[in-house]
Amino acid sequence: MSRCLERSGRSAVAMLLQNEGELCLLRRSSLVASDRGRWHCVTGYLDSRDDPAAHVLIELGEETGLSRLDLADLLEGPVLSLSGGDGVWTVHVFVATTLHRRIRLNWEHEDVCWTPWSRAGEGGRELVSWLPVLVAESLLNCT
């Protein structure tokens, strides 16, 4: 995915979840509309009426079973304009450290992996195209 400067009405939240120096990657299930089988982070569509900081915690709960109480910290990262297969998205990024690795997946994901970012693409893991940009602009600049 390439970085794009234009804006659109499409918005999302994304959370890069860390624990002991490793990033939580979630593999998209066959039940989702896009990026099936690819690895990414906690994400969700953002309605124009929603507060990004509140909504990312809703997505965290739905996708991992974690709550704000499970996080040691929660940092607001940049707002990025990213282009994907279906257009340009405004992405509100958050970086969090979890107190533990107990993840409960919902139907959107079929697997979870904790790995250093430098090894995220190893072991046959195919990452969503926009994740390297998100990490470079957010994780590496927020920690």
Automatic annotation (TrEMBL):
The keyword Chaperone does not apply. Residues 8-141 form the Nudix hydrolase domain. InterPro entries: NUDIX_hydrolase-like_dom_sf, NUDIX_hydrolase_dom. GO terms for molecular function: hydrolase activity. Keywords: Hydrolase. Pfam families: NUDIX. It comes from the Bacteria. This is NUDIX hydrolase.
